[in-house]
């Protein structure tokens, strides 16, 4: 809560599932949620690109966490790009981007590299 901007990057991929050959990728999306804590106003400022570049302010930490973790109203692809009767796989994962510090602080605050993480892929197969 010290005002350092933080980013969650969500990676979304859509594949057509084939049994014999490689699965062609239809969509590859990267979207980034940004959050920064304003210590003067005691509020979180968030940027949510999938919601028409919506900017949200909240004083509640739990609300801020939920907004950062949820991807809402993301348009993955147009339905006319999909073929009826075929199977598709939608994959998504999240990464907490590295915190960029001034050069001299990298040595003092080396433990912040422990913040770097990414989730496993979450996958759903569906038929259109």
Describe the protein in words:
The protein has 128 residues and is mainly β. The chain has one domain (6-127). It contains two helices and seven strands. The chain has helices spanning 61-69, 103-108, and strands spanning 6-16, 25-38, 43-48, 54-58, 87-96, 117-118, 122-127. Strands 1, 2, 3, 4, 5, 6 and 7 form a seven-stranded antiparallel sheet that branches. Mean pLDDT is 87; it is low at 105-114.
Radius of gyration: 18 Å
Topology, number of strands: 7
Mean pLDDT across every amino acid position:
87
Question: Helix/strand-derived class?
Answer: mainly beta
* Ends distance: 44 Å
Strand content: 35-45%
Largest sheet: 7 strands, antiparallel
- What kind of oligomer do you see? single chain
- In DSSP terms (H or I, runs of 4 or more residues), the helix count works out at 2
Following the backbone from N to C, one meets helices and strands in this order, namely EEEEHEHEE
Overall domain count:
1
Low-pLDDT stretches: 105-114
Shape: elongated
- Give the % helix: 10-25%
InterPro entries: DUF4390 (IPR025500)
Organism: marine sediment metagenome
Protein name: DUF4390 domain-containing protein
Brief characterization of the structure:
The chain has 128 residues and is mainly β. Strands 1, 2, 3, 4, 5, 6 and 7 form a seven-stranded antiparallel β-sheet that branches. Helix content is 12%, strand content 42%.
């Amino acid at each position: 809560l010290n005002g350092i901007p933080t980013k969650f990057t969500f990676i979304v991929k859509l594949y057509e599932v084939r049994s014999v050959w490689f699965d062609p990728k239809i969509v590859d999306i990267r979207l980034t949620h940004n959050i920064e804590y304003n210590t003067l106003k005691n509020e979180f400022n968030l940027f949510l690109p999938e919601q028409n570049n919506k900017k949200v302010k909240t004083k509640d930490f739990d609300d801020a966490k939920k907004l950062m973790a949820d991807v809402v109203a993301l348009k993955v692809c147009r339905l006319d790009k999909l073929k009826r009767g075929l199977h598709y796989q939608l994959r998504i994962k999240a990464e907490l981007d590295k915190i960029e510090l001034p050069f001299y602080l990298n040595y003092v605050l080396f433990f912040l590299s422990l913040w770097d993480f990414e989730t496993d892929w979450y996958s759903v197969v569906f038929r259109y």
